[in-house]
Structure formats: C-alpha cells, structure tokens
Amino acid sequence: MNHSHLFNADQQLQQRMLPGVSRTFALTIPQLNEPLATVVTNAYLLCRVADTIEDDNLLSQADKAAWHQQLYLVLLNELDAEEFSAALESQLSPITPVSEKELINNLPAVIRCFRCFNSIQQQSLLRCITIMLQGMPKFQRNISVAGLLDMQSLENYCYCVAGVVGEMLTELFCHYSAAIAVNQERLMELAPCFGQGLQMTNILQDFWIDRQRGVCWLPQDIFRQHGVDLASLNMDDHREVMRHIFRGLIKYTIAHLQKALEYSMLIPASERGIRRFTLWSLGLAVLTLRNLDKQNNRNQETKTKINRKTVKLAILVLNTSCHNNLLLKYLFNLFTRKLR
C-alpha cells in the first residue's frame, strides 16, 4: 500500500472511531472542510487517549504520569507508536469502554495521520496536548466530592481541558483561512471563553452523576457562601439554595457562551462549515442549560439529554441563520433571556 492509500485508510479509520468516543464531535466535525476535518478529528482522538489514561481506575498516579509522558514521546516520534499502543492496551482496566480500547489499539494509525500534517498543524496539536497532559492531572488526581477550592481553580481547570482546545482550533482555522486570520488576535482572546462555556455546561449537566463516582468540579467557595458543604451535600436539605446556586452558575456559563457567539460571528459568513461547527456546539450548550434550569436541579441519576427531534430542529434553525449575525444575536438573546 503506497503512502497516499495508507493515509486515506488511516483517515477513514479515524472517522469510523470518532462516533464511539464522542457523539457531539461526530456530529460537528463533518461540517468542516478538508483538511480541517481530518486534523480536528485527529486532535480530538489524541486528547481522548490522554483522557482514557487519566480516567483509568486501576492505574496508579505514577503510572498515569508515565503513560502520559510516553504519549508525548510518541508524538515527538521518539517512541514507537505500536509498542506504546500494545503496552498501554494490556494495562487498561477491564471496564474501559470498548470504543476507547479500539482507539488505543488503533493509535498507530492516528499517529501516522498526525505525522502527515504540516508543521503548523502539528505544533498546534502538540501545544494543546502538552498543556492538557501537564494541567489535567493536577486537578483530576486530587478531586473529590468536596469540589475544587475556588472559582479561580475552576477557571484554571476549564482552561487546561477545554480553553486550550479553543486556542488550538483557532490556530488551525486561521492557518486554513486568511480571511479568518484577519481577526486572529480577538479570536484567540475569545477562544478560552468558548471552551470554558462548553466545559461548564458539561460540568453542570454531569453534576449528580459525577458525585456518584466521588467527583465534583464545582468550586467550594461559591457553595460555602450559601452555607452548603459540597463534601456532605444532602439535596433534600438544600433544595432551594442549590437551585439558587445553579441559577448563578448557569448565568455565569451563559456569559461565556455569549463570548462564544461573538467568536462565531467573527468567522466570515463565507466559511459556512466552520460557522456551523462552532454554532452547533454553542446552540446545543444553550439548549442543555435551558433543560437544566427547567429541572430545578433535581437529583439526576442519568444525564440530561436533548432529544433527537430538538437537535434536528436546532441544526435546521442554525443552518438557516448561520450567515446572519443580527439573526444569530436575536436567537441567542431569545433562548437565553430567562437564564440571565
């Protein structure tokens, strides 16, 4: 098989694996034109490998650090990808999802794709993953139901797992399009806010599920101000207070998503694929926050999800309006009015 055919096969394998590890990205990434779609898919899969290592319940903290360092060396082409893949797969917990095991098993194909990218693309991905590998463990290895220390800790966590992804995407978008690069300075300022808005939505959505596995990403200081100790939280004793706190956190998240809207509107209307990519993520986040607010922060054992009919309708509306900034502002204000 020649180089071109091998790259095409690896590219197709990436596309096939993506839905198994992220239904959201499997929905949004295909909106991008090539070569962006392949590069962004590759970036997400590499980040997912790092997450799989970090989330493994059998690996010690020292083992996780060692595997992350080896992943970094693989990206630098200083360690063989096949050897790394085989060794890591043999050490994963039996409860690791099948889709993630498949990703680890096929990591050599993902790495081959990575090495076919140009230097700017490679450096952008490498910077993102390096920051994640260095920052993510500082939070995840000390987390408990007691939550993060304060709001600044939450912002720092959101940056190293999501904000830096926004910066990477911005670099890739600007490299892809000179018209986008005109606004690169402002886009780079807004990118971490975009990432934080999406990450905060996930944190709020998963709050009760995370607590069942001994994890909380919300800040202790916000709850302590209202007389709530996250470590011993009893929903029945603090229902109204929790509703008030969550409303405040939703409002905080909406403020970040408003900056995500500004980010999307700075993308030239002619770049419809990139606009759809950003706006779909933004729109689904807003709908998720609306659902959370309607539920009055009830104790949920399953994740709050947007039904397929609503997703399809949201996509239709966003596709119709994605070129019109005035209409986008109107829709955002309409759907977030009660959340502010």
Care to describe what's here?
With 340 residues, this protein is mainly α. Helices cover 74% and strands 0% of the residues. The protein has 17 helices and no strands. The model has no long low-confidence stretch (mean pLDDT 92).
Q: In the CATH hierarchy, what is the superfamily of the largest domain?
A: Farnesyl Diphosphate Synthase
CATH top level of the largest domain is Mainly Alpha
Identify the overall geometry. globular
CATH topology of the largest domain: Farnesyl Diphosphate Synthase
**What is the total tally of β strands?**
0
Mean pLDDT: 92
Rg, rounded, reads 20 Å
Q: Tell me what the CATH architecture of the largest domain is.
A: Orthogonal Bundle
> Main sheet?
none
Domain tally: 2
Helix-strand category: mainly alpha
| β-sheet strand percentage | under 5%
Overall helicity:
over 70%
SSE succession: HHHHHHHHHHHHHHHHH
List segments where confidence is low: pLDDT < 50 over at least 5 consecutive residues: none
Number of helices: 17
- First-last Cα distance: 57 Å
Compact summary:
With 340 residues, this protein is mostly helical. The chain has 17 helices and no strands.
Topology:
Blueprint: H1 3-21, H2 23-28, H3 36-55, H4 61-75, H5 81-91, H6 98-105, H7 107-116, H8 119-140, H9 151-176, H10 178-181, H11 184-205, H12 207-212, H13 220-224, H14 239-266, H15 272-294, H16 308-321, H17 325-336
Helix pairs in contact: 1-3, 1-7, 3-7, 3-8, 4-8, 8-9, 9-11, 11-14, 11-15, 14-15, 14-17, 15-16
